[in-house]
């Protein structure tokens, strides 16, 4: 996992990237483990989902390489923090009852090595991954304003079929895909969460807490934001996309993947 990426976007991360109750509910349903089970959270960030599961009665091992992210974590009695990479997990063989990685897969240095490590520490599963594949998204107006970010997302998020093949092979696991359309009021403000509320992209802190914005060239971000702000003021955005404000959800290509023996 690229530590430098989260060192760039990690400041004030907890302000916008809070655990969403619907994401948490799906994680719990897919793990389907008794309370007290030991869950490894790979790429735990600041621990929002780590602590949410800990609150639900699980024991958590939060694995995160970025010091900036770890420093923002709120410590929980049921969660232990470890410094480590997805490709070199600081865990013993067959030591976890379950594994989860929430919107972190695209920061792994080598997905195949990470998958082999997951199979080593949790050979029977369940492993729950939340990722996105923009190739499966509905047409998203965001790309008209930020084409450079669209290209970046296509480059760094691997195709679902590739992820499924790699993890299934690593653990000799079966795979299940669960669509996760983004709710209209998603609490975890990832880069696509403003699909129906474009004004959130005008907040520089929100933008800084998403890797797509944080890693894009400042000139590109400035141009896109200026255009979006003008279109919101003139009513052009609402004329073209205002119908989205009335929708309950939007399929931006987010998918849960469940792997288990």
Per-chain topology:
Layout: H1 3-9, H2 13-16, H3 21-31, E1 38-42, H4 48-55, E2 59-63, H5 67-71, E3 79-82, E4 98-102, H6 111-121, E5 127-132, H7 142-145, H8 147-156, H9 160-171, E6 174-179, E7 182-183, H10 204-208, H11 211-215, H12 218-234, H13 236-241, E8 249-250, E9 254-260
Parallel strand pairs: 1-2, 1-4, 2-3, 4-5
Antiparallel strand pairs: 5-9, 6-9, 7-8
Helix pairs in contact: 6-9
Write structural notes for this entry.
The protein is an alpha/beta fold and 261 residues long. It has one domain: Vaccinia Virus protein VP39 (Rossmann fold). The chain is built from 13 helices and nine strands. α5 links the parallel β2 and β3. α6 packs parallel to α9. It is globular.
**CA-to-CA gap between the ends?**
26 Å
Number of distinct beta strands: 9
**What's the CATH superfamily, by name?**
Vaccinia Virus protein VP39
Q: What's the CATH architecture name?
A: 3-Layer(aba) Sandwich
> How is the largest sheet built, in terms of strand order?
3-2-1-4-5-9-6
Provide the gyration radius in Å.
18 Å
Secondary structural class: alpha/beta
CATH class designation:
Alpha Beta
Largest sheet: 7 strands, mixed
> How many DSSP helices?
13
- Which stretches of 5+ consecutive residues score pLDDT under 50? 1-10
Mean pLDDT: 93
Helix and strand pattern: HHHEHEHEEHEHHHEEHHHHEE
| Tally of distinct domains | 1
General shape: globular
Strand content: 15-25%
Residues in helices, as a percent range: 40-55%
CATH topology: Rossmann fold
